[in-house]
Write a structure and sequence with these properties.
By secondary structure, the chain is of the alpha/beta class. The chain contains seven helices and nine strands. The protein starts with a strand and ends in a 9-residue tail after the last helix. It binds guanosine-5'-monophosphate (5GP).
Length: about 190
């Protein structure tokens, strides 16, 4: 599970790890958030209406779910189980409460905390991304504070201070968890 404040670079680091580690799978989450520019339904997220999401909750289709910054996010259980049955390791990009919930169900799951070098830098990156209005940005900053406060709960930490170093740290962390080696050509 990969968690950490918005704007820390989690998605990029995960994308790079998926490209480099053979067999690693990504769990596409469901969300009620509206798609950002360039996001593709079924690839970045499964974009559901609140009604659909609530129906999925009732039907027990989530491994975990949580509300974050006014939207619902959840991990579809069936897909994760399918990957695990295939013997693959699965990456979840997930906020803190969800990660805790998964850990209760699967104590062998590892938590990686990804953060920018400072909260100032986190704010800068969020402002730079400009996908949120100022109210949503403040909400995300408040959440970032509580996430940083919980970092002792994590098994690993990757500080994203520079693109190359962070990519390498993430890759080594993941390889340390799942075993095996990176695909030399793609790493
Ligand atoms: P964003 O809206 O920036 O894509 O994601 C907001 C937050 O929701 C991030 O911290 C992200 O890790 C988290 N998130 C994404 N998918 C899930 C999920 O399936 N479950 C939970 N609990 N959090 C998620």
């Amino acid at each position: 599970m990969v968690s950490g404040p918005s704007g820390a670079g989690k998605s990029t680091l995960i994308r790079q790890a998926l490209a480099a580690v053979p067999g690693l799978a990504y769990s596409v989450s469901a969300t009620t958030r509206r798609p950002r520019k360039g996001e593709v339904d079924g690839h970045d997220y499964l974009f559901l209406s609140r009604e659909e999401f609530e129906r999925w909750i009732e039907e027990g289709r989530f491994l975990e779910w949580a509300e974050y910054s006014g939207n619902l996010y959840g991990t579809p259980a069936e897909k994760v189980e399918e990957f695990l049955r295939e013997g693959r390791s699965v990456i979840l990009e997930i906020e803190l409460r969800g990660a805790r919930m998964v850990r209760e169900k699967r104590p062998d799951a590892k938590m990686i905390f990804v953060r920018a070098p400072s909260l100032e830098e986190t704010r800068k990156r969020l402002v730079g991304r400009a996908t949120e209005d100022s109210e949503a940005l403040e909400r995300r900053m408040t959440t970032a504070l509580s996430e940083v406060a919980a970092r002792d709960e994590f098994d690993y930490e990757v500080v994203n201070a520079g693109r190359e170093q962070a990519r390498e740290d993430m890759l080594n962390t993941i390889l340390g968890i799942v075993g095996g080696e990176a695909d030399a050509e793609r790493a």
